[in-house]
Amino acid sequence: MSKTDLHQTLLDICADMAGCNDKGAVANYIPELAKVSPDRFGISVCLADGQQFSAGDATARFSVQSVSKVFTLAIALGRYGDGLWRRVGREPSTHEFNSVQELELRKGIPPNPFVNAGALVTTDMILAGSTPAETLGEMLRFVRQAASDDDILIDPAVAASETITGHKNWALAHFLASFKNLEHPCERTLGVYFHHCAIEMTCEQLAHFGRFLAGFSHSPSLVSRDNVRSINALMMTCGHYNGSGEFAYRVGIPAKSGVGGGILAILPGKASIAVWSPGLNKQGNSLLGTRALEALSKSLEWSVFDSGR
Ligand SMILES: NC(=O)CC[C@H](N)C(=O)O
Question: Which of 82, 122, 171, 284 has the fewest CB atoms within 10 Å of its CB?
Answer without folding.
Answer: 82
